[in-house]
Amino acid sequence: MHYLSGLRAHPVLWRVLAAVVGAYVFCWGEVALCVVSFTALGMGFEDAEHLASMLTMLTYLVLFLWAFAASSLVRVWGVLAGGGAVMAALASLLQWQLVA
Amino acid sequence: MFQNFRLSMAWVHTWFGLVLGFVLMICFFFGALSVFDREIDRWAIPASRFAPQPMPSFDKLLRPVFEDMQPNKESLDYLRSRVDGPLPSYFSTVHSWAAYTTHRDPVLGIYAEWEVPKVRNEDDTAWGNSTIDPRTGMLLPDDQLKIGSQFFYPMHYGLHLTWHGLGYWIVGLAALVMLAALVSGVVMHRKIFREFFTFRPQKATQRSVLDLHNLSGVLALPFHFFFAFTGLVIFASIYFPVAETQLKPLHELHEKLEEKTTGLPHERSRLAAPLASVDAMVAEAQRRWEAKGMAGEVGYLSVSHVGAANSYVSIYRAGTDRIALVGDGIHFKASTGQLLREDPPRTTPDSLNTFLTGLHLQHFRHWLLRWLYVLGGLLGCVCIATGFIFFVEKRKKQHAKTGSQGSRVVDALAVTTVTGMLIATLTILIANRVLPEFLPVGWPARGDLEFYLFWAGWLLAMAHAFVRSAPVAQGQLNPAWREQCWAVAGMAVAAVLLNWITTGDHLIRTVFTHTYWPVAGVDLFLLASAALAALATRMLTARMKAFKPKLSQPQTEELAHA
Amino acid sequence: MHDVLLLTASVLTGVTGMAWLALAMEVHWAQVCRQPLPANAVLRLRILGGAALLASLVLCLLVDHASMAALVWVMALTAGALTVALLLTWRPHWLVWLAWGAGVKKQF
């Protein structure tokens, strides 16, 4: 399995990328989904932005450390990239419903 | 990749701490100096050494100054490529005027934005700013650098790296890594409560340096955590610009809703109208605050859509006695002075955000807390610096045996970031006093020269640190530490003397006869730094003379894993 | 002036509280008193230390409103702990009167 051997050859690099870039993707999705959800629940847009930022910065910290502590790097990438994409997609879907 | 959780955290702490530590030193040091940024401005610009002033009369003093303003050169340069056609020679349609002051500002910063004809992106505006003496309305020359608020302060959040906001992103990553380093540090530090008060300078270098690293990290842990965290929250919209991109439709929908609920229009109306007495509006705003039991000064005043029929004036109360920067906004119709809106009390998320932001930006009046913030910032610097020193101490003997240059490079970079940074700071302060008031035509502005000399000073210090670093590759101390400490002590005293010689404001005058604490404070801080640097020089000289024999004490697990 | 006195008192009680908490640890008690720490003294020192820290908070609250006071208190505790740590390293005998002030019997 070629991609796994590439992963094994540079484990440090992939961990660092997961912690910095992968976690960022997850956090983007989190901010987007939080902002849309909070505004849907009646919060002002700026209030939603601020609250989402506070929560997400803490999430970023946790994910950053988890990327190094986790045993399975594949699982880490799955959660970070996959979770981020799903949350971002949900955010856009919800936004389309609110704006339309 | 790692056998257990603790080992993974130790790896993160060591390597991310090392790489981003260089950036974090800058953030913590210049952040600490920024607590007294306005006071440093007073030291750097002697013409502004007078008492803080309240917001002056808009009608009599500010309005003529605003009406004379035009966009800054930087703004015009930026816009040239963003318009279809040439830029006008005179900008007449004013988008907004604004002025902001705190209890520490003698001079007043004013700011204006203009509409740009034929601009491609309708959100782009031309901007300009000035500093005036609020007692007279006279403009301060714009070639002077406010070393505190325009140099040290932006340095700590952006490294003066403005290309595509790169500095913001690097500092942001550093802040995240700071949080990670704090958490991983706690995980690694098993004896966190037992060694809470422990500092053993008499023991071997590795142990005593690690003690100091732990002490400065743990004792100020709430401070370090909150400042890194709030820094990230303050710039969150830069790091996750969701509202301008993916959620732009939702953002615009809410802007329209907000317009309806607040009655404050977003777009300028085509009809013109004159501006009524703003002073009367300010008086009314202050009357209303007093009626609510919170009498206060004006912190922020702005006029939006200047000259249009739907123009409005917004007046905010200075947060001198609060954590929030400004609050209790009251908005008036500009042409009549009629009340449009009194801002309602903050919602819970808004209060929380304002608290976190205000905690970091500290525009409140509390001198004890300010000095405690400086202590926290300097403890952060000690934590990072001792981290570097521990890294080198732990590896240099090994590297000496294997012939690796790793410790040498890290040590030279550490000298650059610790004492080198102090030398650069003192260089700009000395340059500020030594450069002539009026420079020959064709030379860069005085402020720009000071800026270049700062970086030149730092580069020289770095070169010195590397050139002198050969002993580290033999497992010994880099003499550059001691030599740069000497330089710091000498330069700090020189800065104080130069202030006396060039302005006549010596310490007897600024402390006793014509008391002026901003300048006295800077001079005293410089002298205290000189004393500490001299003490450090003595200690380093003693250490270098007595070559320490290797102590055969068993290494604790913590030392091994660090 | 009133505020200055209250804040000074707050800082001093903070230092005192931290000192008592430090003295409740065997190694620091030994540094200061050069005698072993009696077992019954540990709890007393911890309670006194905690009470002093609480008093420090109350004094802060008398000067500023809650959100400001909380910040002042946390930072003052940092300064207090640092002071105690440095005193224990370089001038431990300065803390002797605090040790005996906790009512621990002196052993000759």
Name the shape of chain A in a single word.
Answer: elongated
* Mean pLDDT value of chain B: 92
Helix residue percentage of chain B: 55-70%
- How much is the average pLDDT of chain A? 92
Judged by helices, strands and strand pairing, the structural class of chain B is alpha+beta
Through-space gap between termini of chain A: 46 Å
Secondary-structure element order of chain A, N to C: HHHH
In terms of quaternary structure, the protein is heterotrimer
Largest sheet features of chain B: 7 strands, antiparallel
Strand order of the main beta sheet of chain B, please? 3-2-1-4-5-6-7
What do these coordinates show?
The complex is a heterotrimer of chains A (100), B (562) and C (108). With 100 residues, chain A is mainly alpha-helical. Chain A has one domain (2-99). Helix content of chain A is 90%, strand content 0%. Chain A contains four helices and no strands. In chain A, 50% of the residues are buried. Chain B has helices spanning 5-34, 37-44, 58-68, 73-79, 147-158, 166-188, 205-219, 221-234, 236-239, 248-262, 278-291, 348-361, 367-402, 406-434, 446-467, 480-503, 507-513, 517-545, 557-561, and strands at 94-100, 108-114, 126-132, 298-304, 312-318, 326-333, 339-342. Chain B starts with a helix and ends with a helix. Chain B is built from 19 helices and seven strands. Chain B is of the alpha+beta class and 562 residues long. In chain B, α14 runs antiparallel to α15 (446-467) and α16 runs antiparallel to α18. A seven-stranded antiparallel β-sheet of chain B has the order 3-2-1-4-5-6-7. In chain C, α1 (2-23) runs antiparallel to α3 (39-63), α1 packs across α4 and α3 crosses α4 (66-90). Chain C has one domain (2-100). The mean pLDDT of chain C is 91. The radius of gyration of chain C is 14 Å and the shape is elongated. Classes of the chains: A mainly alpha (100), B alpha+beta (562), C mainly alpha (108). Chains A and B meet through α2, α3 and α4 of A and α1, α6, α8, α10 and α12 of B.
